[in-house]
């Protein structure tokens, strides 16, 4: 098995939610010599420095400082979040027979019925009492054993289930976690569970952001193991490719000449809900980081930032839809990417993607230089698509760039499918950065 592929599977298993995905990326970066910066600290940077910034424990921005500020930035963006279910406050609900279920809220746009009857568990972050009210502690939580399931109603009670089954997010999608000896045991159940798992006092837990996840490991399948099956392929596959490409670009640079352009990996959160958070692509966080990098060069001023951005290029990496073997008519009749056919450039006449003819030409040239086949994705004209990180970022930064991604099936399912070959090709092309 190619090491990039086995590494992707390990990364997916270690990253069942946005917080843990960022923690996984942070550990990988630190193993390659990157060190953390805080937005609250003074920055003293030099060419060749490898640094990163974490925002809200759920977004991460890594960069390698270039030797020339006017060479601009080479940016790869992706996102850490995926659709699913978040645990609500006061989640405990006791049912007949003292069965305990948890109240949840849907995050983003998951394919609901794909979550039924799976072994599920809990992950996320827990906020603990700190030295002051403004400085609480954060602990990450990943319970590795199956704890819950969302049981489907038997077909005997709904004979028409296979003819269409409208689902209520509030009624039908609540997970079961226990059979209690007494109904009174429900009080404080979640807080007590979290305290036991983390080894902390219940009184120290102030709040938490917890998510359901499928504990089934990521895997390869197919007669030649050509497919990847996992949750969160959208968009952790691209986050992994971005990190792998950034790290690969550093090979041989110790003691050697530093690349003129500054390389940036920007992994945002909350793309699935519109990016309108302090850690999302609609926030000023990336622009603030680029400005502070420019400010570290001797004699740099406001004009330096503007000139650097004008020389920059961004690849907004978010997966696209491959033609489905059972629903070929859903795709555009002349632009239908196939699994294993290479990464896709994403184009939309109504500017839902940042791609235009100029940036698409740059991207195709990069693919040609990398020896990678590129496909084109355009929505079927009767099926409008959504916006992307690239499209949203252009409202914050005057950037040239392109939207792309690996093709996949079942986007937003609890379990998605992609091709091994497309992931390897994506890493290769992201590593091939355009010259200034």
Task: Note the overall shape.
Answer: globular
Which quaternary structure do these chains form? single chain
* Count of DSSP strands: 20
Overall average pLDDT: 94
- Measure the end-to-end span: 35 Å
What topology, given as strand order, has the largest sheet?
1-2-3-13-4-14-18-16-17
What percentage of residues falls in helices of 4 or more residues? 10-25%
- What are the secondary-structure elements, in order, as H or E? HHEEEEEEEEEHEEEHEHHEEEHEHEEEH
Poorly predicted runs:
none
Which structural category fits the helices and strands? alpha/beta
**How many alpha or pi helices?**
9
State Rg.
23 Å
Biggest sheet architecture: 9 strands, mixed
Share of residues in strands: 25-35%
Description:
By secondary structure, this protein is of the alpha/beta class. The protein has 9 helices and 20 strands. Strands 1-2-3-13-4-14-18-16-17 form a 9-stranded mixed β-sheet, sandwiched between helices. Strands 11-12-20-19-15 form a 5-stranded mixed β-sheet. Strand 5 and strand 6 (99-107) form a beta hairpin. The two termini are 35 Å apart.
